[in-house]
Amino acid sequence: MIVLTNNRISGLIPKEIEQLASLSFLNLNSNFLEGNIPSELGNCSRLSTLDLGNNKLNGSIPKELTYLPQLQCLVLSYNNLSGSIPAKDSKFFKQISDVLFSTYFQHHGLFDLSHNRLSGFIPEELSSCEIIVDLLLNDSLLTGEIPSSLSQISNLSTLDLSNNLLTGSIPGELGDLSKLQGLYLEDNQLGGRIPETLGGLNALVKLNLSSNLLSGSVPQSLGKLQGLTHMDLSSNLLSGDMPESLSEMVNLVGFYLQKNKLSGDINGFFKEPVAWRVEIVNLSRNSLIGILPDSLGNASYLEKLDLHGNGFSGVIPAELGKLSQLQYLDVSVNMLTGEIPGNVCGLSDLVYLNLAENDLEGPIPAAGVCRNLNKSSVAGNKRLCGEIPGSRCRFLGRASNLNAWGVASVVL
Fold this sequence. Notes:
Blueprint: E1 2-3, E2 10-11, E3 25-27, E4 32-35, E5 49-51, E6 56-59, E7 73-75, E8 80-83, E9 110-112, E10 117-120, E11 134-136, E12 141-142, E13 158-160, E14 182-184, E15 191-193, E16 206-208, E17 213-216, E18 230-232, E19 237-241, E20 254-256, E21 261-264, E22 280-282, E23 287-291, E24 304-306, E25 311-315, E26 328-330, E27 335-338, H1 342-345, E28 352-354, E29 359-363, H2 375-378, E30 383-385
Parallel strand pairs: 1-3, 2-4, 3-5, 4-6, 5-7, 6-8, 7-9, 8-10, 9-11, 10-12, 11-13, 13-14, 14-16, 15-17, 16-18, 17-19, 18-20, 19-21, 20-22, 21-23, 22-24, 23-25, 24-26, 25-27, 26-28, 27-29, 29-30
């Protein structure tokens, strides 16, 4: 066993390392190693863990590493590696009978090639690597489609293919990964619909499909994901109504659907029990309509609510004043009317409030965050009155055209 992490070691990895025939564990993470990964490592046939992450290694990944029959943990992340991912005729990440080796696993089933400059397709042959638990290929230059054969890696817990150049659709077969807890496909060029089969991922905790070209509606089946805590479908081309089934995700904490083409109202989403647990909701820059439901006040853990850039109408519900943990509220660029609720301004944790480009009226409450609102936070509300910061509001009638920011009596 060799563990020399964080030792500021520089230079090349010596080819003579192949002479360590009994070496089972090699961890050189977080040093300043450079040059190529020596193919001679493929002769260390008892190697079960190889961690060369966080160095300055370059060149391609030697295919000889795939011939290591005991290898069940491979970390090459955060280097400058290029070329394709070798996997043809591989012998690594297979089930082994010698349980004594399990003592030396750093992270059993970890396959981490992330944060490199790898290119080419994701090899179909990875499906034969049956004991991979965490497959991390994110932040590279991989192209092509996601192989449906990845669904055959039955022990897969994390699949991270984010921030690549992947195209095509999301394979419906991924819904067969019964142990999957994290699915990260964001920042690619994936298109088509979100497969209904993803609603069968009963163990899923985090789902990120943001910044792609996904279209169609949000699948009703996602409401079955009872263990999901974070769902990010933002920056796509999704349309249609938000399915009420989403209110069944009882453990949801972060919900991100901004920058899509969603329509309809949001009354169905803010039902119990999900409303009691959610902390962040971002539905901004869609085409949502209707009133802001009073049930928003039930979201007692809500810290950030961003609804700007939609078509919401009606008043700002006073029930928002119950949200004692709310820190960020943006309802700008809608069609809201009525007065600003004083109890919302008075929320002790609220540090950001944006009400601009609505049709609000009446005096700006001289309480809490509203004492320090700037011009841009209320601009476009022509029937609001009060100076920023709030001074005495003298109503002069709608015909008055005074400068809103230069006198004590203002019309915005």
